[in-house]
Specification:
Layout: H1 2-17, E1 21-30, E2 35-45, E3 52-58, H2 70-75, E4 89-97, E5 100-101, E6 107-108, E7 121-130, E8 135-145, E9 154-156, E10 159-162, E11 168-169, E12 171-173, E13 176-178, E14 193-202, E15 206-209, E16 212-219, E17 222-232, E18 237-240
Parallel strand pairs: 1-14
Antiparallel strand pairs: 1-2, 2-8, 3-7, 3-11, 4-5, 4-8, 6-7, 9-10, 10-18, 12-13, 14-17, 15-18, 16-17
């Protein structure tokens, strides 16, 4: 039993250390419309021992599309009464896989509860399978409308908490795709990967985000910021004119050993 446990932990460690996915995203905040317009390039690798003939995407912001989503039904509709313009969504406008237009092949799936009105998980059948060790390139143009703030996402006046905001590929395991809808009581399972995100906002906005800010410049009344990080499983950011940002240098040093 002990030997089996050691072998399982060792295989899990190897599995988690291999790079599976990288995201390169360009995002522009339109504060008046409460919208983020985005372009995204995903490089995804099949690290399992089996081919896959489909892929799954999480579109988490669709949990806040209306009162019919699985999240809203599980939460109790009366808790979140709101006006039409206070809802949110994540729409894929264009998607290409290895340069081939796949927009017409997207369909929403509801494996957990068969709620046909839920759009938080999308499936795309592939023209040819992705074999073990192979990678594919996925390019998307998307639009995310932020809801009035709830469940760790959304806006309040000129404050924007931009979380679970971009199309994110689900996780392929040996036993198949681990792909679930957005539930009231759930977390967000995804592969660790590499992120490079360009965030463009009006000049008055300050931004804090996942990762390290590597560049920043002004351009036609806007500020463009670049954030990068490796080996993280998500990317979120916040924007507001009222953020107060405090920075100082930090270095990790070995503790001093004191002798008597």
């Amino acid at each position: 039993m002990r030997r089996l446990l050691i072998m399982f932990l060792f295989s899990t460690l190897i599995y988690s250390q291999e790079e599976v996915v990288s995201y390169k995203i360009k995002a522009k905040l339109l504060p008046e419309e409460k919208i983020v317009k985005g372009e995204e390039i995903i490089i995804w690798k099949n690290i399992t021992s089996k081919p896959t003939s489909e892929i799954y995407f999480h579109l988490y912001l669709n949990a806040f599309r209306n009162e019919l989503s699985t999240f809203m039904r599980e939460s109790g509709i009366g808790r979140f009464r709101r006006k039409d313009m206070e809802w949110g969504y994540c729409e894929v406008r264009e998607i290409k896989i290895n340069g081939i237009d796949m927009k017409k092949k997207i369909h929403y799936v509801q494996p957990d509860d068969r709620n046909i009105y839920d759009r938080t998980l999308a499936n795309i059948p592939l023209d040819s399978p992705v074999n073990p060790g192979e990678s594919i390139s996925i390019s998307l143009i998307f639009e995310s409308k932020l809801p009035k703030v709830l469940a760790r996402s959304g806006y309040s006046r000129d404050f924007f908490m931009v979380a679970q905001w971009f199309p994110k590929i689900a996780v392929l395991r040996e036993e198949g795709w681990n792909a679930h809808q957005y539930h009231r009581n759930s977390e967000f399972f995804s592969d660790f990967g590499k992120y490079e995100v360009e965030i463009r906002t009006p000049e008055k906005f300050k931004v804090v985000a996942s990762g390290l800010k590597t560049n920043e410049w002004k351009e036609k009344g806007e500020i463009v910021r670049i954030f990068k990080e490796d080996k993280i499983h998500d990317f979120a950011w916040s924007a507001s004119p009222n953020h107060k940002i405090f920075e100082e240098e930090f270095s990790m040093k070995e503790p001093e050993v004191r002798t008597k």
